[in-house]
Design brief:
Layout (H helix, E strand, L loop, with lengths): L6 H8 L7 H11 L7 E5 L5 H10 L4 E6 L11 E5 L7 H7 L3 E6 L9 H22 E12 L4 H11 E7 L10 E9 L1
Helix pairs in contact: 5-6
């Protein structure tokens, strides 16, 4: 038996989501109502596609979900979902501005390839989060929302401050569906300034 199999993994498979991570976004959505029908959502680090599918269900066909990841997404997605494969560090501002005029929400479940060295992994996570925040600041409409996973490390408080300064409300949230041993936590920005 796979030691990573748990209640959430089985539930994700049963509900036809590619990964258990969908339940983290579901918990965030239930608590903070990040995504509404008709919204435009940018999903950073979207593979294997659970957040994409969940967001697409929330926005409905009147909305739009755009996903970006270094790894190609192989699942079939609804017509109102667009996928791009690439490294966000190599995509310039013009690319992000060309996606559409503005997003209601930018969501990021990105994580670095881990090395096992906590310091290195935390720094890489912080760098990804700062890039996600800069993309959010560039692409979100005023009043838009931001959800970002970060590893808790030395730069965690710095990142929380960056989010706090860009949004009217910020929250720190650890979903029940996160694995107990995981150092991940979500920083949420509501109502972009």
């Amino acid at each position: 038996m796979n030691r990573w199999q748990d209640h959430y993994s089985r539930k994700a498979k049963k509900e036809q989501f590619p990964a258990r991570s969908v339940f983290k976004l579901e918990e965030i959505q239930k608590k903070y109502n990040i995504i509404e029908k008709g919204d435009a959502v940018l999903d950073l680090g979207c593979a294997p596609g659970s957040w994409l599918l969940y967001a697409a269900g929330l926005t409905g066909n009147a909305g739009q979900v755009i996903g970006i990841d270094q790894v190609p997404v192989t699942i079939s997605v609804p017509a109102h979902v667009k996928l791009y494969t690439g490294d966000i560090f190599l995509m310039d501002d013009n690319f992000f501005k060309s996606l559409r005029s503005g997003f209601n929400a930018v969501i990021s479940d990105m994580a670095p390839s881990t090395t096992g060295n906590k310091f290195v992994d935390n720094v890489r996570s912080f760098d990804l989060c700062c890039k996600a925040l800069s993309i959010a600041q560039m692409t979100l409409i005023a009043g838009g929302s931001f959800v970002c996973k970060i590893f808790q490390g030395e730069d965690f408080k710095t990142f929380v401050e960056l989010v706090r300064s860009a949004f009217n409300v910020h929250r720190i949230f650890k979903p029940k569906s996160s694995r107990k041993a995981s150092k991940e936590i979500f920083v949420i920005g509501l109502r972009k300034k």
